[in-house]
Design brief:
alpha+beta, four-stranded mixed sheet, about 30% helix
Length: about 425
């Protein structure tokens, strides 16, 4: 499937983005391990989260769809998972792969985790290493999927200093720690999204957070109580519309019901530093997560040196932030972003290549990028089956002088089913074409 983005649109109106992907994964997984029943409302029905649901069902968890975004989960408890009869296929979902490593590491049955071609290229050493130090036996050729998880009699509590900030690795360790005797401590080099800590605490798990030292402690073994969850709109998905409105919405766009957890709004802060006009309205709390409406109006952007402290809090949003930089006045510098090379694609390389095709001056190094804002032209670009790359270049097409043709867009359904329809509701036309 290819997209044709003609450019020149003036956006207006309001919309609601799909449910938060990170929270959706955790609501399914954690309630599967709980003792009892729970309902999830607003679950993201993208391919990634549905892969998580199917894997849990393959291990004996009852998950019933009640309606659009509404699911009933009948948890089996920490020791209630059954051995799967076939490899667990997690599709394109790195979150599923890493968090399931934490869940399966302490189990007394063997399992195999597989994924699609993209996921099979992604390195898993950073999650395998700490879990094996806890007594697990997880292996994969060159530490890449497919991963084999062997039976384990018991896992050990550990103190682990994470070399790279990663909410997925932190979460995997904490999930394994639910089965360990004693206190497990995880220290982060910088804060990362804290949905795991919030949800486990709400489910009765003894977990403590020392924000000053970036230290999370969990005392196990610990059982989970079921927790019904209303999933807020995904801030990563909302960010494509925040940047689009900044570039092309003179009368403004409102994005309703977005999660504004402080560990997820680094991209908003970066855009504000660049001069974006973003108002956070109608703040409220939904199931322990802060939620608000975002109102965004077109604004002139000025290049900045992106503060490194905000990088871990905006890691999924950098593709569209590159697009913002391409439309800013001056030279924007992104440093300490090497993590982007280990996502669904090498996001630094793919974005730089595409922006150059559009006539934007930019450079890359191992963990950095430098982008000089300026006028852009139409081009033919391959998103390389990366959902966030595809949506970022859809935004880039809004200001291009000629139409942009974008290939490799099929995986957008992993995180944002209905993206093209949502764009159309604001007057932003994307034409879907067969190759």
């Amino acid at each position: 499937m290819q997209w044709l983005i003609p450019g020149g649109a003036a956006l207006s109106g309001s919309l609601q983005v799909p449910g938060d992907k990170s929270i959706s994964h955790r609501a399914l997984m954690f309630n599967a391990l709980a003792n009892g029943e729970a309902q999830i409302d607003g679950l993201l029905e993208g391919d990634d989260c549905l892969a998580t649901a199917r894997a849990l069902q393959a291990m004996g968890v009852s998950i019933t769809r009640l309606g659009t975004g509404q699911y009933h989960v009948h948890g089996v408890g920490r020791h209630g998972l059954a051995a799967p009869t076939a490899p667990l296929d997690l599709g394109n979902s790195g979150t599923s792969m890493r968090l399931f490593c934490g869940i399966l590491a302490p189990q007394r049955f063997a399992s195999t985790l597989v994924g699609d071609r993209s996921l099979s290229r992604r390195p898993m050493a950073r999650v395998i290493r700490p879990l094996n130090a806890m007594g697990a036996q997880i292996a994969g050729k060159a530490n890449r999927p497919p991963l084999t998880v062997l039976p384990t009699e018991r896992v050990l509590a550990v103190r682990y200093g994470m070399p790279v900030a990663s909410a997925q690795v932190k979460s995997a360790i904490l999930l394994a720690a639910l089965y360990a005797d004693g206190e497990t401590q995880v220290s982060e080099p910088a804060p990362t999204r804290d949905h795991t800590e919030r949800m486990l605490a709400a489910m009765g798990v003894p977990i403590a957070v020392d924000a000053d030292r970036h230290l999370i402690s969990l005392t196990g073994p610990a059982d989970l109580q079921p927790l019904s969850v209303s999933v807020p709109g995904d801030p990563s998905s909302a960010m494509f519309f925040v940047v689009a409105a900044t570039l092309a919405a003179p009368s403004g766009v409102t994005i309703r019901g977005v999660g504004v957890n402080p560990t997820r709004i680094g991209a908003l802060e970066i855009l504000r530093h660049m001069g974006a006009r973003i108002e956070i309205r109608n703040r409220r709390d939904v199931g322990g997560e802060p939620v608000a409406d975002l109102h965004v109006q077109q604004a002139e952007l000025t290049a900045i040196d992106v503060p490194e402290a905000l990088v871990p809090l905006a890691i999924d949003e950098f593709p569209v932030l590159f697009v913002a930089a391409a439309n800013a006045r001056g030279v924007t510098r992104f440093n300490a972003i090497g993590e982007l090379r280990h996502k669904e694609s090498d996001r630094i390389a793919v974005m730089i290549r595409g922006l150059r095709a559009m006539g934007i001056t930019c450079e890359e190094s191992d963990d950095a990028a430098v982008i000089t804002g300026g006028p852009s032209r139409g081009a033919e670009i391959d998103a390389e089956d990366d959902h966030r790359i595809a949506m970022a270049f859809a935004v880039a097409g809004l200001t291009a002088s000629q139409p942009l043709i974008l290939a490799g867009t099929e995986t957008v359904a992993t995180s944002f089913p209905g993206f093209v329809t949502s764009c159309g509701s604001l007057g932003w036309t994307i034409e879907e074409m067969s190759k």
